[in-house]
Design brief:
mainly beta; Rossmann fold; Immunoglobulin-like; seven-stranded parallel beta sheet; seven-stranded mixed beta sheet; 7 helices; 37% strand; disordered N terminus
Length: 899
């Protein structure tokens, strides 16, 4: 208000949002002179509708991947996309990366689509949507708010599988909503679904920041509507803050329209577009992009502290400061340190840095953690169990003083503390506010417990230091053949005078290193060439170049993957050699091999593999062979390959297995207990219906019949969980399928197709499950099987009306044919009593045995003849099994007697 009481209305636009996060300092004309406008960069945007790609400020740089023919455009998604990359034709609406391109998607199937985009090189995606803590009818259950949810786990898994991909998400706009029935503290604990993930970057919403022309932050206030953290295990969430208050950007009502919107939805693209510029800057300097952990760690490390001292559950690590982040990249090795490292099991890593004696000394580590165990409602409200899997630690020491990382106080109203290790966050930062003097400090990284996977990649960022020289790689990590050399180049810079000498660190035994320059006393390029790689064991190696100048040293590490063209046999594990009674779909498994990039899987009815019924190349260590014949002996082998050569098939280990008789059509088990079959219309509703299988069967094939009434079937994930006796295997049948469609009445079968997602029921007929049911083949079937339905969304409900399992079971064959007897002819068949048997070879005695269908032996006969006749006209009509054995070779033929 003015002094006389009149209101003053404040607004901002994309240009002012860029000033708040200092993106404008990176753009052309900015103070850093970097000319970073997103040239050649591609952002991905998932949002709630179609972007108006024809908008003039997009200048043809937007590709609508989902629903490209739709002409129903959405303001929100168009606005978000514009904040990232709208052109600079209008200063007020200029995007952060205004020369970048964008690929846009409707938010349905966002996770699976993101994994597809990773394969096309996606680095950053923006997700300005989420689940509010209060829906249209009720509030979410207290246990779910702040919990490490299954959705958070799924996104963490995607990030772990995609180390260069960073998901940027809005925190939510529930800042004024206090409908969490049991918060960690009043006014806090408002994050839901993927906002509680570990590996993404969750963005809070600030008002316009007051920033000096040199980029120094004067003040910033949070927008009260911005959702507060922390997570239930007291992780620092949101991670960071952007400017999203009254932001003017592109709109969808016309090709020139603009709109002014407020929310974390606007703050998130402000941050995502700015981070795209930082990736561009890093690529310009190093010829490589940063891993997602490096980018996230850099953003959090260089953010301007706001709110409480240290990180907090409102601002996270503070307001994004792109100028400071870019300067940290530029000064790497001289005034800062940015590196990507690997910590092995039980390893401790230390480095000595020299404080500049003026700035705070700050060191941080960030890592992309393995997905943890999700809270599915069984762990109660505010479960404090850390979602963290690999617990790394960072400390700084000088003399007898030890400095610990920040962590949140159990009461988020209180400032963060730094009196011990942080055992919940995968961003850890140690800050020495005022180093007593310039001098050496030791940074140490270690870990607690065991590292899942045997090691953990992490990123290290240090600021407030000074060094007389720097080494920065301009070569990506390398993959080479053992008969080649590996060359890594580094830019060398120095301040002042002096000479730096270079040496190799961590060379595997047998390898040698040479340098184009053994030492430098002026700026230049040093290349380390590794040779003698044929002398080392194939595998992955972390190899460093060390520069030493006077009392100062610096080591930069690179990853080298070496393959050779000499292969060891692959060790086969399942099925075991000679295993019998298998189904006509068999899971083949083997041990991974360090020298293999791919594997050729072959299966044949011939031990010499003259012909193959399976001949496929895979990159995993398992393969499902389907469509096999009953009562047949199969041979299988796995041949390793890499880009240096291929294994020799004749040298491969060969195993065999026998398929049995698969009996179908008469064994079905139907659920009768529907006491928990109701699916409520509130969030996170579940239903479960059991069915008991008995009879001592071995699974040959499963089909699942479902009839479920539910509006909007996309809400549901439906799973089949097997008996505890076989390890409670879980098969996802449907995972949030279709869209605005109702009801399910279908049979889940691996041989099925995709749902039509139309009509009522929208899922009908024979449908292929999300996970393969064939992975259950050959397991014992007895026990309780449970159909689980999980509906995390509110507003739609229903019930499980029927559920049954159709079981095909396997019985061992009386005998199993091999290729040598595959051409035996038995005729006529059906017969009135006379059976003619034509044998391809009569070198040895052939044993003929006839059994009835119950397995009882009717007759037995030995013969040396190539053609034999058996008279069975005195037997009753029916089906008989004729086994033919010649040495090690066996086959069984079905004979029908029809008088």
């Amino acid at each position: 208000l003015t002094p006389d009481g009149h209101p003053i209305y404040y607004t901002t636009d994309n240009a002012n949002a860029a000033k708040s996060t200092r993106a404008n300092h990176l753009n052309t004309g900015g103070s850093l002179g970097l000319d970073l406008n997103g040239q050649g960069m591609i952002a991905r945007v998932w949002d709630g509708g179609t972007v108006r790609a024809s908008h003039t400020l997009f200048s043809g740089r937007v590709t609508v991947v989902d629903e490209p023919s739709s002409n129903t455009y959405v303001v929100h998604s168009t606005h978000v996309t514009g904040t990232i990359m709208a052109s600079n034709a209008q200063a007020a609406t200029k995007g952060m990366a205004y020369q970048a391109s964008a690929r846009t998607f409707e938010w349905t199937n966002d996770l699976s689509e993101a994994l597809d985009e990773v394969q096309q090189g996606m680095l950053i995606s923006n997700h300005s949507y989420g689940t509010p803590i209060t829906g249209t009818t009720d509030a979410l259950p207290a246990w779910f708010i702040g919990a490490y949810s299954s959705e958070a786990r799924d996104w963490d898994e995607a990030a772990y599988l995609s180390p260069y991909y960073l998901m940027v998400a809005s925190a939510g706009n529930d800042g004024y909503d206090n409908n969490n029935a049991n918060p960690i503290a009043y006014g806090f604990d408002k994050l839901t679904t993927n906002k509680t993930a570990k590996n993404n970057l969750v963005v809070a919403n600030a008002q316009d920041a007051v920033v000096a022309t040199n980029g120094t932050l004067t003040s910033v206030a949070i927008n009260g509507s911005s959702s507060q953290g922390p997570t239930d295990d007291l992780r620092i969430k949101p991670d960071i803050t952007g400017n999203g208050t009254a932001v003017t950007s592109t709109s969808s009502t016309s090709n020139t329209a603009t709109a002014t919107l407020t929310g974390t939805s606007m703050a998130s693209p402000n941050v995502a577009g700015t981070l795209l510029l930082l990736q561009q800057h890093y690529k310009n300097i190093t010829n490589s992009f940063m891993k997602a952990a490096t980018l996230k760690g850099l953003a959090c490390h260089t953010a301007d502290d706001a709110g409480e001292v240290g990180p907090d559950a409102v601002f996270g690590w503070g307001l994004l400061n792109a100028k400071k982040a870019a300067e940290t990249i530029t000064g790497n090795g001289l005034t800062s340190w940015v590196s990507e490292e690997n910590l092995a099991q039980h390893q401790t890593y230390s480095m000595t840095v020299k404080s500049d004696g003026v700035s705070p000394l700050i060191a941080s580590i960030t890592w992309t953690d393995l997905p943890g165990n999700a809270n599915l409602g069984d762990l109660g409200d505010n479960d404090p169990t850390p979602a963290l899997v690999n617990d790394l630690d960072i400390r700084i020491t000088k003399n007898n003083s030890t400095y610990y990382p920040w962590r949140l106080d159990p009461d988020p109203n209180n400032p963060a503390i730094r009196t011990g290790d942080n055992n919940v966050d995968n961003v850890e930062q140690v800050k020495i506010d005022a180093p007593t003097a310039a001098g050496d400090y030791t940074i140490t990284i270690s870990h607690k417990g065991n590292l899942q996977g045997g090691s953990q990649n992490y990123s290290l960022v240090v600021t407030g230091i000074t060094s007389s020289f720097s080494l920065n790689s301009t070569t990506s990590d390398l993959v080479v053949c053992a008969n080649q050399t590996a060359a890594f180049s580094f830019n060398y810079k120095q301040t002042g005078t002096g000479t730096t000498t270079f040496s190799a660190v961590g060379l595997p035994t047998g390898a040698t290193a040479s340098f184009n320059n053994n030492s430098l006393s002026a700026n230049g390029v040093v290349t380390m060439t590794l040779s003698g790689l044929s002398n080392i064991v194939p595998g992955e190696y972390i190899i460093g170049i060390k520069g030493t100048s006077g009392t100062e040293s610096e080591t930069r590490y690179k990853t080298l993957r070496v393959y050779n063209s000499t292969f060891q046999n692959i060790s086969l594990s399942s099925p075991t050699n000679g295993q019998t009674g298998l189904s006509t779909s068999v899971n083949l498994k083997w041990n991974t091999n360090a020298n293999a990039e791919s594997y050729t899987v072959q299966a044949s009815t011939s031990s010499t593999f003259d012909t193959t019924i399976v001949n496929d190349v895979v990159t995993t260590n398992e393969y499902v062979a389907t469509g096999l014949n009953q009562q047949t002996r199969y041979y299988w082998r796995v041949i390793p390959s890499n880009h240096c050569g291929n294994g020799i098939p004749a040298n491969a280990t060969v195993y065999s297995f026998d398929t049995g008789i698969v009996v179908c059509g008469s064994t079905s088990f139907t659920a009768t207990d529907f006491s928990n079959a109701f699916i409520d219309s509130v969030s996170n509703s579940t239903a479960s219906v059991p069915v008991t299988v008995s009879g001592g069967y071995t699974i040959g094939n499963l089909k699942v019949r479902l009839n479920i009434t539910h509006t909007y079937v996309q809400d549901m994930t439906i799973s089949l969980v097997g008996p505890a006796a076989i390890g409670s295997p879980t098969i996802i049948l449907l995972k949030e399928p279709c869209g605005d469609n109702d009801n399910i009445a279908c049979t889940m079968d691996d041989a099925g197709g995709a749902p039509a997602c139309s009509g009522n029921p929208s899922i009908s007929g024979t449908i292929a499950p999300y996970d393969s049911l064939s992975s259950l083949n050959t397991l014992p079937a007895d026990g309780e099987w449970t159909l689980h339905v999980n509906d995390p969304y509110n507003g739609d409900g229903g019930s499980v009306n029927s559920f049954s399992i159709d079981l095909c079971y396997v019985t061992p064959a009386l005998a199993t044919p091999e290729n040598e007897l595959a051409n035996v002819k038995v005729y006529p068949n059906p017969t009135k009593g006379i059976i003619n048997i034509s044998l391809p070879s009569a070198l040895d005695k052939t044993l003929l045995k006839l059994h009835d269908i119950q397995g009882r032996e009717i007759l037995s006969k030995e013969t040396n003849a190539a053609n034999e006749v058996i008279n069975i006209e005195n037997l009753q009509e029916g089906v008989y099994l004729l086994s033919i054995e010649n040495g090690k070779n066996k086959t069984t033929k079905k004979v029908v007697l029809n008088k």
